DNA sequence: TAGATTGTTAATCGATTAACAATC
DNA sequence: TAGATTGTTAATCGATTAACAATC
């Protein structure tokens, strides 16, 4: 694992797909794969795959290809999937519940250690194996447990308030499902936004303007389950 | 509204943000805005905004800027947000519930007309104002009501089975939250994938490799609530 | 009119693809 | 060895940014 500098987000966003696909192959018992085979299954070019992987190191062998297990492990390391970053989730609505379950059964580098809400309906219920706490206990909790990441499954206005509190408590990483733009206010944070509305509106555009051009622009976003 | 050919996905994916932001301005009572002002608020260049908008028409006035209300309406039309495409949702788990509520209060071009699940726990419950039906009634329902879009909030294997059924029933548009790759099998479909796992793994990478380069690559993805 | 800001063309930048020497 | 496939450099393509004439 050499280089690792100036890796563009275009490359980084393809890594999870590589990982997932390789993991699937590994489980299936495939031990070896060439960039060409991989490219066909992923709908990318072999060239791109080799370029991408070589941002991180030379994991293949000329004339042979890549060892599936080894490459999968390398990407796992690159992504930092065994980091177990301590994480809290704010907002125990349907989305929060879905995310909490999702995160608990997908060991993807994070460890959910607390869930908070301000609604009496939700406080005390269990989600993702954790009891929902009153948001009034957030500060003490953070000072004691020192989470480094927060998932925001709350409204825009709640997100705005919470971002300030969490930032002041030292949290710099956010998985943000709200419309509030954390990054604008706090440029030294790492924010991954999930904008469901945008995705849906984009789909609406694509359906409404169902021209060949619109369709062919979109790369097939292939996925393999893990 | 002229041109509308060869509009790249890069442009299309920015439209929802423009729309949301302009809508917010409109509500706030702002009537006029220049590309420069807009660019500052969105973290884009003025040039890019003008380029993007001019894919669809010349909506501005030299020396003046853009009329917020008019531009907002135009983008609304471009996106097709009043289409009310008849939509069904498959999978009434937490994610399905969250999505159903989301879609019902966001009039974003779709009209949810049915929700299906195969679990006796869920059948008969209400989500997003609709009663969850047994998936055994899916075929009859589709033949009668003719939905054109399906939201898949189910597991990979269920998605694989359902995609076939839905495709055979004539559905060609999917909002896909599963890992199953519909587009690979059915290339004449329009699929918008939401890959929560990928998003989370990308965040894990960014935290693990928290270099300046990794951070600056990512454009601030600013959002404004609507 | 003068100032401002668009629409659009040209220049730059970055990402993808092609090609091929290195080498297993 | 011969065949295959990588790692990497060069060429191409597309998207973003800069510049400026048009014009409100």
Give a structural overview.
Two copies of one chain form a homodimer. Chain A is of the alpha/beta class and 226 residues long. Chain A folds into two domains: 71 residues, Winged helix-like DNA-binding domain superfamily/Winged helix DNA-binding domain (Arc Repressor Mutant, subunit A); 110 residues, NAD(P)-binding Rossmann-like Domain (Rossmann fold, 3-Layer(aba) Sandwich), CATH 3.40.50. Chain A is built from eleven helices and nine strands. A seven-stranded mixed beta sheet of chain A has the order 5-6-4-3-7-8-9. In chain A, helix 9 links the parallel strand 8 and strand 9. The longest helix of chain A is centred in the N-terminal third of the chain and has 14 residues. The C terminus of chain A is likely disordered. The interface between A and B is large, with 79 and 79 residues. Chain A binds a DNA duplex (24 and 24 nucleotides) through helix 4.
Q: What does the main sheet of chain A amount to?
A: 7 strands, mixed
Please state the second-level CATH architecture of the largest domain in chain A: 3-Layer(aba) Sandwich
Computed structural class of chain A: alpha/beta
Largest interface chains and counts? A-B, 79 and 79 residues
Please identify the top-level CATH class of the largest domain in chain A: Alpha Beta
Q: What is the percent of helical residues of chain A?
A: 40-55%
Task: Briefly summarize what is shown.
Chain A has 226 residues and is of the alpha/beta class. The first copy, chain A, contains eleven helices and nine strands. In chain A, helix 3 crosses helix 4.
């Amino acid at each position: 694992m050499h280089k690792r500098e100036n890796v563009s987000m275009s490359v980084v966003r393809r890594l999870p797909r590589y990982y997932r696909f390789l993991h699937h192959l590994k489980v299936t018992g495939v031990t070896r794969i060439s960039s060409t085979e991989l490219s066909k299954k992923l709908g990318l070019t072999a060239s791109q795959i080799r370029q991408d992987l070589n941002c991180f190191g030379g994991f293949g062998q000329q004339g042979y290809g890549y060892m599936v297990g080894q490459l999968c492990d390398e990407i796992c390391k690159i992504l930092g999937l065994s980091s177990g970053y301590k994480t809290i989730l704010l907002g125990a609505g349907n989305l929060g519940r879905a995310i909490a379950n999702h995160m608990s059964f997908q060991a993807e580098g994070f460890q959910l250690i607390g869930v908070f809400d301000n609604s009496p309906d939700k406080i005390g219920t269990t989600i993702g194996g954790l009891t929902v706490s009153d948001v009034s206990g957030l500060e003490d909790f953070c000072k004691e447990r020192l989470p480094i990441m927060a998932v925001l499954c709350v409204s825009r206005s709640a997100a705005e308030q919470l971002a300030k509190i969490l930032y002041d408590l030292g949290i710099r990483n956010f998985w943000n499902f709200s419309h509030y733009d954390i990054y604008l206010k706090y440029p030294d944070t790492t924010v991954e936004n999930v904008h469901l509305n945008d995705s849906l509106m984009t789909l609406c555009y694509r359906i409404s303007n169902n021209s060949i051009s619109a369709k062919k622009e979109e790369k097939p976003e292939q996925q393999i389950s893990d």
